[in-house]
Every structure is written in C-alpha cells, then in structure tokens.
Amino acid sequence: MTTFRCGQTVSYRSVVAKSVRSQVAKRRTLHKSQNRCCIAFCWPALTRDVVLDPFFGTGTTGVVAKRLGRHFVGIEREEAYVSLAMERLEKTKPLDDDALEITKSKKFEPRIPFGILIEQGLLNPGTVLYDNKRRHRARIRADGSVVGADVAGSIHKVGAHVQGAPACNGWTFWHFEEKGSLIPIDLLRQQIRAESAAAN
User: Fold this and answer.
1) What is d(CA 44, CA 74) in angstroms, rounded to the nearest whole number?
2) Do 186 and 146 lie in a common domain?
3) Are 184 and 170 members of one domain?
4) Can you give the pTM of this predicted structure?
C-alpha cells in the first residue's frame, strides 16, 4: 500500500478543474475511474484544506490537486496504479497563482438584513421606496418590512408582488429618493459591508 502526499494550498477555480478533466481524459486509461474529475474540487475550499482519496488509482485526484496547488493524501495498494500515479504526478506542474484566482460570488458575501439599514439610521420608517421608473412604491415599516398598496412583507416579497413576478431581488429593485434622484438601496448594503470589512 502506498500513500501519496503533495501540495501547496491555494483557492480553487471550477473552470480549472474542467480543463484538467479534459486533459486527463486524453491520457491512456489503466483504471476505470481515471477520467473522473474529483467531486471534492467542485466548490471553493478554505486555505490549507487537504483532499483525501483512499482509492487513489492512477492519481487523478493528486493530479488535479497538484495543478490547483492543494494538499492531498492518496492511498493505493495496486503497484501498477502506483507506478502510473507516480509518473503522472512527476509530470504535473502547479498552475500559476493568477490562473487560480477566483471571482467572488455575491452568494459568499456577508448577508445583510434590510432591517440593519433602519437600525443604523440609513433609512427611516415611513420612507417611501420606488422602482427605478416610479411605477411602484412601498413604505418602510419600523420592523424592516415594507408595505405596498395591498401587500406587506420583505423587500423581495413586495417587489415580486407588485410586478406579478415569482421572485424579485428587492435590493436592486427598490430605490430611495435623495435630492430628487433615485438611489438603489443596494448601495447602502454595500456601504455596510465595506464598513464591516474595514472594521475587521
């Protein structure tokens, strides 16, 4: 039984894994799972994460991990697979740091409840919100909900209702008025995130 250890930890980028999978698929196959790209690489990982593959086979997990600059541990008992895995790993080079950079998705940003804007005095209860063409309006309540002509609820629920839509991003749909101009409430959310990041 042979155990492989290798890697230097950095962030993961999904498009890189797809590229690796495409290149690995062109190699000769000794193991039935050689061409399967590891599911473990499908999500961004925290720094210094380690990927474990207890059935290392011909080393696909190690190849992907090494290219992505990640730590890995592989275990394999078949000598034929061990030899090919070692050969593949010796030929594998880590990608440049620039290629491993990822664009942060908004879903990974800190969640900011709409009520925080009221608590911090950025918007006040009673303030009227509008869509960008002033076709719809809703008034802010003290608890962070908003109320339209015939519906009350979150900025998302009311925004969807007034449009007759199944869903709505209330942060980008609603605007507040300042000096005659309409400003997206999302700018206030971004302000809070920036202040929070600076404080940390």
Assistant:
1) 20
2) yes
3) yes
4) 0.52
Structure tokens at 139: 């008034």
Q: Which residues pair with 147 in a beta bridge?
A: 139, 152
The pLDDT tens digits of the residues spanning 89-130 come to: 999 988 887 776 666 666 667 789 999 999 999 999 999 999
Predicted confidence (pLDDT) at residue 31 exceeds the cutoff of 80: no
C-alpha–C-alpha distance, residues 138 and 146, integer Å:
6
Extended strands (E) in 92-180: 128-130, 137-140, 146-147, 152-153, 175-178
Least confident of 41-50, 68-77, 148-157: 41-50
- One domain, residues 79 and 113: no
Instruction: Find the domain containing 68 and state its range.
Output: 2-100
DSSP result, 41-86 = GSS---TT-EEEESS-TTSHHHHHHHHTT-EEEEEE--HHHHHHHH
**Which tokens hold the place of 29?**
């196959």
Average pLDDT along the chain: 79
127 and 86 in a common domain = no
- As a whole number of angstroms, the distance between CA 46 and CA 42 comes to 13
Nearest to 170 by CA among 184, 190, 180, 181: 184
The pLDDT value given to residue 108? 64
